[in-house]
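Our consortium's second objective concerns turning raw sequence data into structural hypotheses that experimental partners can test. To show how far this objective has progressed, the report includes one record in full. It was chosen at random from the queue rather than selected for favorable results. The single chain below, 377 residues long, was entered without modification.
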Amino acid sequence: MDIYPRQWAFLLSVLLIVLSGCKKTAGGEDKPADIVRISYATGFTINHYADYTKVTVRSPWDSSQLLHTYILIDRNKPVPKNHPEGTLVKVPVQNVACLYCIHVGILEQLGKLDKINAVAEPEFINIPAIQEGVRNKKIRSLGMASSVNVEQLMEAAPELVFAAPFEGMGYGNMGKSGIPIAEDASYMESTPLGRAEWIKFIAAFMGEEEKGNQLFESIEKKYNGLKELTKSVSHPTVFAEKRYGQVWYVPGGQSYMGRLFADAGLDYLWKETPETGSLSLSPESVFEKAENSDFWVIKDADRDRNKTYQTFAAENDSYKHFKAWKQRKIIYTNTTYSGYYERGILQPDVLLADLIRLIHPELLPTHQPVYFQMMEE
């Protein structure tokens, strides 16, 4: 059949429209319509496509490898036929299980506590709505996060489990349950803002991306503003934590706490070390380096009571020989009750403000510390 020039022009224009609508890359995958800006976190990406959202989590132990890929599909629309490989999750998720208090804290910030129907280790979650939900059986207790009660999980039947990956460890029977596991590797981020930015990751599953972005932008603006305040002040020395038997774990120089100390206008004694995690030191070496440190910052969990200088020294008499103990310059948080892990990690701007107020009170004279306090007598 003969095709006239006018018909050729029409067919060519149709073909160009079809091809432009496909937006395929060389690898065959759609080009994203929108890439979510991730400024500080290094462990995840969020890309929006026409019919789905692709969320990837990089391996915290090998950044060249992907740990997990999620394909988020609008629950009110059919599943697209040509979506890429990954764990399918219909969003917004209607009910979830949380293995760690940090996930509960993020959901609280997003206004989604009512979506939680199961938690691990509820005794460590200092949020009244969760405690009440466990008491009245609306929220199931899954036991320990490291060995989840799969029977209770299956009875709760959440659409998604928020968990944290650990190197060399799988999820056992929970991984075989068929319930998708959203792997939140935020604890491996080495900066306060990087860790807080994972609110965007959880917000994507909950259909609250706009709110997640707004929350983080507010945190970012406040944090960076506070950081600027400390650039022109003196930087007193600081060290951290306490001994456990014959070991004293201190934050690495490039760790979360190491960065927080620097931003608070402190001269951290192990700032030159490259580690992003903890250093395992002998108590003797810590004493030798930190005996005359100006400040001492301690995070500790005590269900019975807050520590005082006297009860703290009763744990180990050597503590009384540190200058910070003698001059009453120990900064302390009882993580059992302060909400440090549930909310504080998500509010690095507040943590920073606390430290600045306690170390440089003239910079923030009206701020009332929320998580950190000076240790009481």
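The partners drew two points from this record. Residues 1-28 have pLDDT under 50 and may be disordered. The domain at 34-219 is CATH 3.40.50.1980 (Rossmann fold). Both points have been shared with the crystallography group to help prioritize constructs.
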